[in-house]
Amino acid sequence: MRHSLKKIVENVPYPIGSILAKVPFEWRFGSAYTQSLNEIKLGAIDGEYVVNNFRKIFEYAKVHLPFYQDLYSKANILNLKINSLSDIHQVPIVTKNMIRSQLNSFNGSKLLNTGGSSGEPFAFYVDENAFAREWAHMHNVWTSIGYDYQDVKLTLRGKNLGLKPYHYNPVHNEFIINTYLPLANFVDDIIGLIDRHQIRFLHGYPSAIYIFLKELEQCGNSVQIASFRKTVDICLLGSEYPVPYMTQYLTNFWGLKYISWYGHSEMCIYAYDEFCNNHYKPFHSYGYAEVVDERLIGTSYHNQDMPLIRYDTGDIVNGEHHENGLLATFSIMGGRSGDYIIDKNNKSIPLTALIFGRHHDAFTHLKSVQVRQCSIGSAEILVTSDKIYNNNEILEMFDLTNTDIDFRAKLLNQPILTEMGKMPLLVDI
Questions:
Q1: Which helix (H) or strand (E) holds 287?
Q2: Which fold has domain 44-126+263-334?
Q3: CA triplet 158, 180, 400: central angle to 5 degrees?
């Protein structure tokens, strides 16, 4: 019911939608959103808070879920009492592959799937308040750079709008830009939109924003570029690690400020880059974040439908710790990037948007997804799976509409790995 209502609201025209957008998020998301905001405002979360919340989900999992009962029995920790951070370190780390193979042993009302930043498809359940908690933390980060929920955003996150250049979404008070159309075709409309609504914020994938601004630099006239510079001043960068050449372009050429944050669909860790220097500060109010052997490990306190306890995110990081033993910041060494391929019109298409922004059916069938640019306007989707699929069957799993690229697919025995053991999304073989 809530999902259907959201779909209806997302398609309300701007004059009505702009009124709905003024409804405070506390009213929309309810007590879970408000409680999360209150916990964030309490300031630094100490070790006792983490231990107490970890203990609750650990005790629940070992009593109610066969997957964890079996795992903890084999590790001989069914009787383990969680009274300190060192006790937590005795709990086994779980991986995507371990959880993926046991999906049928979990159950919940919200089944999501993701390609993940590293290209490993993964289906999982989240609890009904997961999005309320996430938006509370996200809004807290945005507020730190001057955002108010009544501010209109320009959003670039890979939404497939067909032939429409943009669409207003009152749920988040944003105009969503169609990143699959050449900006030159509707640059006048976009600049007019920014002027009319005095839009200060760009929100989206760093690679999508980077490409959008590169196109504006090329196709916009001096008046349009001056108008953009006068009004837009802040970027909200999510879902990808903002690689330095992109952020340098934002700041040096356009004079834009930005903030980026770390989050992932599985909702175990949320962190933000407070000083824009690749030192992400985790919210331990959101989940317990650790670094073990340069791997970022997370635990969600609240997801009883499918607890992810000491879950390996797959990201390679360096960590710095507080004196109390909690992770203070982490720096991303590998995992997320702003890869893109080129279509027949020499337009850059961000892979995060194309492959992971459309919620393909592929993620429930495939083990890994990677992309190779064969030539300009031609690309190959490389996948691995426990089942045999032919070229057409693989392509049918993806929404590749509204792209000017010839795609083919190939089933591999193993994904292509880097020297670090990471699986890049964009490969060159």
A1: strand 287-292
A2: Rossmann fold (3.40.50)
A3: 80
